[in-house]
Amino acid sequence: MKILQVTAVDFTVKKFLLPLVDELDNKDYEVHIACNVNEIGEDLRNKGYAIKHIPFSRDINVFNHFKSLIKMVTLIRKEKYDIIHSHTPVASLITRLAAKITNVPLNVYTAHGFYFHENMKPFVYKMTYSLEKIWGKYLTDYIFFQSKEDYELALQKKFNKPDRLVHINNGVSGNKFNPLDYDRNIIRRELNVEGKKVILFIGRLVKEKGIRELLAAFEILSSKHSDLALLLVGGGVTGDRDGLSPQAIVDKMSSSVRQDIHLLGLRDDIPKILAASDVFTLPSYREGLPRSIIEAMAMGKPIVATDIRGCREEVFDGFNGYLCRDRDVDSLVSALERLLTNDDKLNDYGKQSRSIFLEEFEEQKVLDRQLRVFENFKINKK
């Protein structure tokens, strides 16, 4: 059984898709991956993954999208895939159309978070909603949903037949993200944050992740509390349209604030960094079902996040953290301060996060829900 996993950029493959790729390989599927191949993709290719280069563009240039469509159709006809499984908005629109043109037997799409959301302008919302519904209804056999809100909306609005809409959730490995495996004190010494209460952000350093608001909030908190540190982990991704430079913002702050802000760049030791932190925060404007919060929950951390789709499926206000208003510095300051000034809540909410993770977001459960669809297809095809 031959399956093609498709996403726009190779960063997404490494960060999000490898557990599924490896699980499929273990189940004797022949797995190929199509994406825009850069350094990460070449590294994965050198490790033995079958990576196909498709130059997906994340802009609105229709000519570029048409070129990607032609290349995808050509690849599918050459390789004769049994299953196409696409991810990320633009890549999935192109791929599902190509799969329909080439009569691929099973055409699956994972909605990591519908592109349309409640904060969009009405015209943009209507346009992107319509695209998702048309593609879901006429060009897709199964839609997997990470966000329960997305799943319930698609079910209500009849994006496809009910049995073709599958809520898979999102998850990470509880073995990899296990707080008992890390010595917090040693890591904090390595990061030079001993004696500090550490706020941690992990994600793309772009405007829509709330970086400006987070830095402004930390500047306010630092003026009131001298025992705080902020760690920013992440970088940009090829095609980001609203990238920014946190360093340029930090450089304008006073030296007393700057010294407690640590820009750590892209890291491969996320569990280790999480172990050193006290609070994880994600002040995004838009999310699907953010894996970074799940990683923090797995490591037993209390969470402060914005009250938006996805985040509010993981963070229960007053139970394992707090929700704040998006694009609102004062609301973010208030939520962070309520945790950072209460050691009992830091401890209790962290324990609740780990408990919720084990119940809802363990990676194997997410993989099994997807494999069930693929295995049923394999049985019925014989």
TrEMBL record:
Domain annotation Glycosyltransferase subfamily 4-like N-terminal: ranges: 14-129
InterPro entries in the cross-refs: Glyco_trans_1, Glyco_trans_4-like_N
Pfam family for this entry, one: Glycos_transf_1
Keyword annotations from UniProtKB, A to Z: Transferase
Domain Glycosyl transferase family: 184-354
GO molecular-function terms, A-Z: glycosyltransferase activity
SUPFAM superfamilies documented for this protein: UDP-Glycosyltransferase/glycogen phosphorylase
Signal sequence range: none
Identification of the protein by name: Glycosyltransferase family 1 protein
Species name: Planococcus maitriensis
Taxonomic lineage from the root: Bacteria, Bacillati, Bacillota, Bacilli, Bacillales
